[in-house]
Specification:
This protein is α+β, with helices and mostly antiparallel strands and 218 residues long. The protein contains 5 helices and 7 strands, in the order H-H-H-E-E-E-E-E-E-H-E-H. It has a single domain, classed as Beta Barrel (OB fold (Dihydrolipoamide Acetyltransferase, E2P)), CATH 2.40.50.
Length: 218
């Protein structure tokens, strides 16, 4: 029940943000570049539940990576009200390389409550950049995973998205399930963590993502 409440609240917030954005654009000079801004469909509809395979597929033309946020810049006088983020890539999975420093711009209403903090590490599934240079995580909080450290003596990393990983193994709407055919342990592990809404080990998660990304390329 909780996951659907989060979904509904997110959807309402996005529509309010879109309404506010549309009013601001209409009030501006129609001859300016800001009045020509077109919002991509993923800004509205990506709160639809997605399993991990669908998240990977939606970002196949974009970027998939883990990395640390090293800079956040709110762009003044930006016609599309964007925030620029700089990341140092730890592990490039698709579209970027290990140790690469990358920047991307995200529309400010899409980072409210789900942005990135300097010094924190994430696994991101980003859409390809739009015609106006913006991107966002697939499914917003669904494609944005925080990396956390667990354990006192033997430290290990886990990942969790804004939905608590719920629905990653099985689409909450269609019930379509993922399948990691080459590794039964990883397949069962991802399903168990998703069904129980618990953090997933970083290494196991990335292994599943790499398999699904390679599968999409076949």
């Amino acid at each position: 029940m909780k996951i659907f409440q989060v979904f509904l609240i997110s959807l309402i917030a996005i529509f309010f943000a879109l309404g506010s954005f549309a009013n601001n654009v209409n009030e501006s000079d129609e001859s300016t570049e800001a009045s020509k801004v077109k919002l991509e469909k993923h800004f509205v509809f990506d709160t639809i539940p997605l399993n991990l395979a669908e998240i990977v597929d939606a970002s196949k033309e974009g970027k998939i990576f883990s990395g640390k946020c090293i800079d956040v810049e709110e762009l003044e006088n930006d016609p599309v009200n964007a925030v620029k983020y700089t990341f140092k890539v730890t592990e490039g999975i698709k579209g970027v390389k290990n140790d690469e420093v990358i920047t991307f711009k995200q529309w400010k209403p899409t980072v409210r409550g789900a942005g990135y903090e300097v010094g924190k590490e994430y696994v991101l599934f980003l859409h390809p950049e739009s015609d106006i240079g913006l991107t966002s995580p697939v499914g917003f909080e669904q494609g944005r995973f925080e990396i956390e450290k667990k354990g006192f003596i033997r430290r290990y990393e886990v990942v969790r998205n804004g939905f608590g990983n719920h629905g990653l193994s099985r689409n909450l709407k269609t019930q379509k399930a993922i399948s990691i055919e080459n590794d039964k342990f990883i397949n069962d592990y991802i399903h168990r963590c998703s069904e129980q809404s618990i953090p997933m080990g970083y290494k196991e998660f990335v292994k599943a993502v790499r398999y699904l990304a390679e599968k999409e390329n076949q």
